[in-house]
Design brief:
With about 350 residues, the protein is of the alpha/beta class. It has two domains: about 130 residues, Response regulator (Rossmann fold); about 190 residues, Rossmann fold. The chain is built from eleven helices and 15 strands. The strands form three sheets. Strands 8-10-7-6-13-14-15 form a seven-stranded parallel beta sheet, with helices on both faces. It is elongated and about 55 Å long. It starts with a strand and ends with a helix.
Length: about 350
């Protein structure tokens, strides 16, 4: 079997050498080229034909966001962002790169102990290997906000909470969905997004900046309010219970914490037919069993259609279980949710 060819874009000679070393010793991977700037990478992109790209965000000249945009418009290639910084400006660039088409973000092993160093090295290589298999395409959706539909009025006995889950490709999908719901959306929104824990706060801040809904990180237990997005703090499960949202440190499910299945199952148990769930793009099967629980409890379930999912793992797993009432392309999900809320309320 041929090895996965990796293009490294990293301005630090030390980190570039480190990446070359860990990639070179991994039997799945090989270094196709290692360059210090995005400009240099773009010059050799067609000739090198990498299977996956390791991309730093803070680069001399063109930064990682602009590099992502140009790569995705010219020669779409899976991109893994390797970033050392959680400073506000760098986080904004990182999250925007994910919106523009990068698939994942992992930490650089700076100032780490030997055990942490090895763990991060393995994480980087595994992400590169996994993401190399993703069939990326040129961006199909505008990056700006979509016009919001007319908000549905909250009515008694209607759906009470919307839960949304995503993994790989999720930042852009969440932006499209939440923007489509509009600032007057009448339900609380519980969200699970698989992301490296150290980048979670930055992701939540970015999401709030590009969507009309306020975003909160939940650290304990609190009441939910309409039109607000709730996410668990790093490395915690998110659960909905009796009009409240809470977090806990239970065991990972589907190797994930937070787990979409944990969130959906809590919705099924707490809300039954008043639960509304949407499972978006993502690798693996997290969320499928949980969405099935919502379906079996009488709630309504939507999974993203393969035609728009960056990675069709999680939605496809839900479809195989018969967990989704409908498979919809991403742009159609928000309007359908608004319609469901209106019809559900009027029919009761």
């Amino acid at each position: 079997m041929s090895k996965i060819r990796v293009l490294i874009i990293e301005d630090s000679a030390v980190i570039r050498e480190f990446l070359c070393y860990i990639i070179g010793r991994d039997p799945r991977l090989e270094v196709a080229a290692a360059v210090e700037s995005a400009e240099e990478a773009l010059k050799i992109l067609d000739r090198v034909s990498p299977d996956v790209i390791s991309l730093d965000i803070r680069l001399p000249g063109m930064n990682g966001l602009e590099a992502t945009r140009r790569i995705m418009s010219r020669r779409p290639t899976p991109i893994v962002v390797v970033s050392a910084s959680v400073e506000a400006e760098d986080l904004k660039i990182t999250m925007s790169a994910l919106q523009a088409g990068a698939l994942a973000v992992v930490e650089k092993p700076l100032g780490s102990t030997q055990s942490q160093y090895e763990s991060l090295a393995e994480r980087i290589c595994t992400q590169l290997a996994i993401m190399s298999q993703v069939q990326v395409v040129r961006q199909r959706f505008p990056r700006g906000r979509r016009p919001a539909p007319a908000p549905a009025k909250p009515l008694p006995n209607s759906y009470r909470v919307l839960a949304v889950a995503a993994s790989t490709g999720g930042p852009n999908a969440l932006m499209v969905l939440l923007s489509g719901l509009g600032k007057d959306f009448p339900l609380p929104i519980a969200v699970v997004q698989h992301i490296t824990p150290s980048f979670l706060a930055g992701f939540a801040s970015w999401l709030a900046s590009v969507c009309p809904c306020p975003v909160e990180l939940v650290a304990g237990r609190q009441a939910m309010a309409p039109g607000r997005v709730y996410m668990a703090t790093a490395d915690r499960h998110l659960r909905v219970e009796q009009g409240c949202v809470r977090v806990d440190a239970g065991d990972p499910v589907c190797a994930q914490r937070p787990s979409a299945t944990v969130l959906f199952e809590s919705m099924a148990q707490s809300l039954g037919p008043h639960a509304l769930g949407a499972l978006l793009t993502g690798m693996g099967e997290d969320g499928a069993e949980g969405l099935l629980a919502v379906h079996q409890a009488g709630g309504f379930c939507i999974a993203e259609d393969a035609s728009t999912a960056v990675v069709n793992g999680m939605p496809a797993a839900a479809a195989r279980l018969g967990a989704a009432h409908e498979l919809l392309p991403l742009p159609a999900i928000a309007p359908r949710i608004v319609e469901l809320i209106s019809n559900h309320g009027e029919g009761e």
